[in-house]
């Protein structure tokens, strides 16, 4: 992680084209500089979605992403 830290705070998200599928339902993540985070889970649970939000390809519908360097 290049930022000093980042956090997902109660992040809610579904894709605009699929409002019926709630992908993230209040996700909380905290990662400090020097830490490595592994996202583990079954196919379709939202791992790649977390990365896309981190890269700001999408905005959360509720909650927030916090980063020291953004
Ligand atoms: N671009 C998209 N548009 C609409 N729905 C999507 C899109 N990408 C993913 N989804 C849906 O969002 C949910 C989470 O998908 P995601 O790709 O984040 O899962 P994943 O944990 O990365 O799965 P995998 O292990 O197969 O890579 C799934 O229900 C998926 O069908
Ligand atoms: Mg994936």
TrEMBL record:
Name recorded for this polypeptide: ABC transporter domain-containing protein
PANTHER family: ATP-BINDING CASSETTE SUB-FAMILY B (PTHR24221), ATP-DEPENDENT TRANSLOCASE ABCB1 (PTHR24221:SF251)
Ranges where the ABC transporter domain occurs: 24-65
A Pfam short name: ABC_tran
GO molecular function terms attached to this record: ATP binding; ATP hydrolysis activity; ATPase-coupled transmembrane transporter activity
Stored InterPro entries: ABC_transporter-like_ATP-bd (IPR003439), P-loop_NTPase (IPR027417), Type_1_exporter (IPR039421)
Highest classification ranks of the organism: Eukaryota, Metazoa, Chordata, Craniata, Vertebrata
Gene Ontology CC annotations of this record: apical plasma membrane
């Amino acid at each position: 992680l290049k930022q000093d830290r980042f956090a997902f705070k109660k992040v809610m998200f579904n894709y605009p084209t699929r409002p019926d599928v709630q992908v993230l339902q209040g996700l909380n993540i905290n990662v400090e500089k020097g830490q490595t985070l592994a996202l583990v889970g079954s196919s379709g649970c939202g791992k790649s979605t977390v990365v896309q939000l981190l890269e700001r390809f999408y905005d959360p519908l509720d909650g927030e992403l916090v980063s020291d360097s953004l």
